UniProtKB/TrEMBL annotation:
Name of the molecule in the record: CCN family member 5
Subcellular localization: Secreted
Classification via PANTHER family: CCN FAMILY MEMBER 5 (PTHR11348:SF22), CONNECTIVE TISSUE GROWTH FACTOR-RELATED (PTHR11348)
Sequence similarity: Belongs to the CCN family.
Organism per entry: Ardeotis kori
Keyword tags: Cell adhesion, Disulfide bond, Secreted, Signal
Pfam families registered for this protein in UniProt: IGFBP (PF00219), TSP1_CCN (PF19035), VWC (PF00093)
C-alpha cells in the first residue's frame, strides 16, 4: 500500500542535474509507503533526492547516489571522486577535516560531546577520549554504616551511597569470629576505569577490597581499546 503525492522535484543532490534527467530519475506522481522506514541510530529521516518520500539518511562511508542522499546535518555529501574506480559513490565530509563517529553520530575534530550523562568526550584525530563526570569517591565501612553500597537513584545520573541495615546479632557474631576486623568483610569495588591508551596496550584501574586483609587498594590490569595503526616503513639508512 502506498501513499500518492504530487510533489516531485530534484533536491539534495551535490550535482546540478538538467530537468530531463530529473524527470527520468523521479517518478510522477510519487508513491511512498504509508509507514516511514525505521532508521538505525544516528540516521535521521530525510526526503530523497526527488523530494518525494522520506528515507534514512546515509551515514559516513555508506553508499549513496542521487536518490539516496547523505546526512547533511552531519556535514556529509555524496562523494563521487572514487566512482571512476568502480567502487561507487560514498558519503564523506564536505571538506577534508577529520572527524570521529560515536553511536552512529559524526563529530568534528576538536568537538566536545557527551554520549551519556556520565561521560564527556572529545573528538581528536579520528578517535576520541573520554573522562567520567561521576566521582568515584570511596566510603569506608563504619560502625553506623558497616555495609555501604552505591546504587542508581531514579532521576539522577550518578549513583549514590546508601547504608544497608543488617542484623546486629549477625554482625556481632561475625566480629567475634574474626577479631582482626571490627566488622565482617563484604567484598566491594569500583568499576574498571577506561583504558589509559586510546590505541595499543594500556591499563585500567579500580579500587577494591578483594584481598586477604579486606583493605581498599588500587588494582590495575592491562587493556587495549583498539590496535594502533601501522607506522610507515622506515627508509634505509644512509651510510
Amino acid at each position: 500500500i502506498a501513499a500518492v503525492t504530487q510533489k516531485t522535484r530534484c533536491v539534495g543532490s551535490a550535482m546540478a542535474l538538467p530537468p530531463q534527467v530529473c524527470a527520468q530519475l523521479c517518478r510522477r506522481p510519487c508513491y511512498c509507503p504509508w509507514v516511514p522506514p525505521r532508521c538505525p541510530r544516528g540516521s535521521p529521516l530525510v526526503l530523497d533526492g526527488c523530494g518525494c518520500c522520506k528515507i534514512c539518511a546515509r551515514r559516513l562511508g555508506e553508499p549513496c547516489d542521487f536518490l539516496h542522499v547523505c546526512d547533511r546535518s552531519q556535514g556529509l555529501v555524496c562523494d563521487y571522486s572514487a566512482a571512476s574506480a568502480g567502487t561507487g559513490a560514498t558519503c564523506n565530509f564536505e571538506d577534508v577535516e577529520e572527524g570521529c563517529e560515536v553511536n552512529g553520530r559524526v563529530y568534528r575534530d576538536g568537538e566536545v560531546f557527551q554520549p551519556s550523562c556520565k561521560l564527556q568526550c572529545r573528538c581528536l584525530d579520528g578517535g576520541f577520549t573520554c573522562v567520567p563526570l561521576c566521582q568515584e569517591d570511596i566510603r569506608l565501612p563504619t560502625p553506623d554504616c558497616p555495609y555501604p553500597r552505591r546504587v542508581e537513584v531514579p532521576g539522577k545520573c550518578c549513583p549514590e551511597w546508601i547504608c544497608e541495615a543488617r542484623d546486629r546479632h549477625l554482625l556481632q557474631d561475625a566480629g567475634a569470629a574474626s577479631p582482626l576486623l571490627p566488622y565482617p568483610c563484604q567484598e566491594w569495588g569500583t568499576e574498571w576505569s577506561a583504558c589509559s591508551a586510546t590505541c595499543g596496550v594500556g591499563f585500567s584501574t579500580r579500587i577494591s577490597n578483594q584481598n586477604r586483609y579486606c583493605r581498599l587498594e588500587t588494582q590495575r590490569r592491562l587493556c587495549m581499546a583498539r590496535p594502533c595503526p601501522a607506522l610507515p616503513a622506515a627508509s634505509p639508512a644512509v651510510s
